[in-house]
Design goal:
Elements: H1 2-39, H2 41-50, H3 54-64, E1 72-76, E2 79-84, H4 87-94, H5 124-129, H6 135-139, H7 143-151, H8 157-161, H9 164-185, E3 189-190, H10 191-211, H11 225-241, H12 248-254, H13 256-290, H14 295-298, H15 304-313, H16 319-350, H17 352-367, H18 377-382, H19 384-396, E4 402-406, E5 411-413, E6 418-420, E7 425-429, H20 430-433, H21 437-440, H22 450-464, H23 495-512, E8 513-516, E9 526-529, E10 531-534, E11 541-546
Parallel strand pairs: 2-7
Antiparallel strand pairs: 1-2, 3-11, 4-7, 5-6, 8-11, 9-10
The structure holds protoporphyrin IX containing FE and 2-acetamido-2-deoxy-beta-D-glucopyranose (3 copies).
Keywords: Endoplasmic reticulum, Heme, Iron, Membrane, Metal-binding, Microsome, Monooxygenase, Oxidoreductase
Function: May be involved in the metabolism of insect hormones and in the breakdown of synthetic insecticides.
Pfam families: p450
Length: 550
């Protein structure tokens, strides 16, 4: 009898304790979704549990989100998960100092010691290395802020402009690769093969622009560096969605093969970058000893790796920091750009008549009979339809479908008057927001680049008639309804870079080949692979025909 009483007391105490720990989460759920929010928790847990896989999560979120009132809060243990898919909510989170950090789910990321994942307080050792004139930055306690400040100069306008030579020379090699593939396989170039060619070319560009090191990747990749990066990212996606696999011994126990494969890829890529960085560093030190005098003048024009070496010379970074940062930068720059290029090719190939012809006509009118062997900034600036085309493909098929943030302190979700408690995980669903009819009209899932041109015309028109009352503003698009590169404090550092390389490549491809595919964009099955992947990619075939030149 005494035993039962003791058990009952213990149970009640534990429940009370848990409830106390969860009280802020329940308040959030109540404030956002009311009684229904509280009652639907078991359903949400069930849906989460059965769909916890990269292959299904994106499709299932797309299917089920409409059934719930959003923003949606889910209780997970003693934390809340907050799902946001509207522009106002995104704006609030992306600009909140409390939402700068990444979540623990992203800790399984390979190369997570770079800017992309930087967070929290500096470690003691790092603090000691920072030079005195940066102390103000340190006091705010954010490693990210300091890093971002250190790296911004490496992606300024002038530096990125200086990459056009690289974009063009590698782009020309890519054309040769496409030509030989289309000769070999005629009408049926597999998605996988096109992806492989593109990825290797973009990786070569990354090595040149990020690390200043020539490689042969566009021609060959015998060491399988590009494929290893891609494979590792797939594994990362699994580890993000199933965070318990981030515990090494558990991962090894549950999925020994996957674990071994991840270790192998990891080692290959760590060695690959370490070797380049170390060699570059030796050369840089030798050279730097010679032209110390020219120092001040060249400060403004350092590419990423040189900028890092300079910081190391000032004692602000170690060689290990540089290797970590370079690893992360090569990975993000090459994977995102090559994926976006593939989705752009899909959009081209499925819209041959309308938009591909229009693009080709625009390019022809800008090139004036030149053969696109060198595409410069002045030309890109005239290609407005190409710009709209890129935007539309980034809108409909967002390369980074979801974004996660950790809430480091309680904060107010403006507009809704709701306090989001500390430790909440915020999921920003860019993918579904960018296809939502509420923000993009009833043709929101159609591929229509014209919507961006029209929008620009509207904006210009509005500027001319700015004296008019802002009453008709209802049609105006929210500036956070289009977020392919995120926005706010941690916006993508490589946005300009990406647009330039992708447009240079596209102009070249479009002047040399005609693309076609029998696929319809609606048939794509979406996979959350950190970046957007397609489950039915193996079924996609491209017809790539060389264009006859006069
Ligand atoms: C089409 C190509 C690209 C897309 C769609 C893209 C998208 C994004 C997005 C959505 C974020 C925000 C991630 C988050 O908040 O969790 C981001 C961050 C970042 N991107 Fe990109 N990106 C692209 C290309 C690049 C390139 C080419 C580079 C480097 C040269 C780059 C470097 C970075 C870095 C360093 C961050 C982290 C910034 C920070 O946390 O301060 N990205 N990118
Ligand atoms: C690139 O490949 C060519 C032949 O395919 C070879 O002659 C050259 O040495 C390679 N260069 C590098 C840096 O590996
Ligand atoms: C495409 O999107 C960017 C923002 O990412 C914007 O600055 C640009 O004006 C857009 N282009 C068009 C044609 O709307
Ligand atoms: C879509 O919206 C347009 C104008 O906003 C309207 O004329 C049209 O009837 C709508 N179509 C459907 C299927 O709702």
């Amino acid at each position: 009898m005494h035993l039962y009483v003791a058990l009952w007391v213990c149970g009640t105490l534990l429940t009370l304790l848990l409830g106390w720990q969860q009280r802020k989460c329940w308040r959030l759920i109540w404030q956002l979704n009311g009684w229904r929010g509280v009652a639907q928790q078991p359903l949400l847990w069930f849906l989460l549990c059965i769909n916890l896989h990269p292959n299904s999560i994106l499709a299932k979120v797309t299917r089920f989100r409409v059934l719930f009132k959003r923003p949606l809060a889910i209780l997970i243990g003693t934390r809340a998960l907050l799902y946001i898919d509207d522009p106002a909510g995104m704006e609030c989170v992306l600009n909140a100092a409390e939402c700068l950090d990444k979540t623990f789910m992203q800790d399984g990321f390979f190369a997570r010691k770079g800017l992309l994942h930087a967070r929290g307080k500096l470690s003691r050792a790092e603090e000691l290395r920072v030079s005195p004139n940066q102390l103000n930055v340190v006091i705010e306690g954010q490693k990210w802020k300091l890093r971002r400040k250190q790296l911004n100069p490496a992606f300024n306008h002038n530096i990125v402009i200086s990459f056009f030579d690289v974009f063009n020379s590698v782009g020309n090699q890519l054309i040769e690769q496409f030509a030989s593939q289309s000769q070999l396989h005629g009408d049926a170039v597999k998605f996988k093969d096109a992806d492989d060619m593109l990825s290797r070319a973009v990786l070569e560009v990354s090595c040149l622009t990020i690390m200043g090191t020539p490689t042969n990747f566009t021609q060959t990749d015998d060491a399988h560096i590009a494929t290893s990066y891609k494979r590792l990212l797939e594994i990362i996606a699994i580890k993000t969605i199933k965070p318990w696999l981030q515990i090494d011994w558990l991962h090894r126990l549950l999925e020994p093969q996957l674990f071994a494969e991840a270790e192998e890829c990891n080692q290959l890529l760590v060695d690959f970058v370490a070797q380049i960085v170390q060699r570059k560093h030796r050369n840089w030190q030798l050279r730097n000893g010679l032209d110390d005098a020219a120092e001040d003048g060249t400060w403004q024009r350092r590419i990423f790796i040189e900028q890092m070496f300079q910081l190391a010379a000032n004692g602000e970074l170690t060689l290990q920091d540089i290797e970590d940062e370079a690893q992360s930068m090569v990975l993000v720059s090459f994977e995102t750009v090559s994926n976006t290029m593939m989705t752009a090719l899909l959009c081209l190939a499925t819209h041959k008549g309308d938009c591909q012809e229009r693009l080709r006509a625009e390019i022809a009118s800008v090139l004036h009979g030149n053969d696109a062997s060198y595409v410069g900034l002045e030309q890109l600036q005239q290609l407005r339809y190409l710009d709209a085309f890129m935007n539309e493909s980034l809108r409909l098929l967002a390369t980074i479908p979801m974004n996660l943030r950790h809430v480091s302190r309680d904060f107010l979700l403006a507009g809704r008057n709701v306090i989001v408690p500390q430790n909440t995980m915020v999921v920003l669903d860019t993918f579904n927001m960018q296809r939502d009819a509420a923000f993009w009209g009833n043709r929101s899932t159609e591929f229509e680049p014209e919507r961006f041109l029209q929008h620009q015309l509207d904006l210009e028109h509005e500027q001319e008639h700015c004296e008019q009352s802002p009453g008709e503003d209802t049609q105006r698009r929210h500036s956070y309804s289009f977020l392919p590169f995120s926005k706010g404090l941690r916006t993508c550092i490589g946005r300009r870079y990406s647009f330039f390389i992708m447009k240079v490549f596209l102009v070249k491809l479009l002047t040399h080949f005609e693309f076609h595919s029998d696929l319809k964009l609606e048939q794509l099955q979406f996979v959350e692979g950190i970046s957007l992947k397609f489950r039915n990619a193996d079924d996609i075939l491209f017809q790539i025909r060389p264009l006859k030149h006069k």
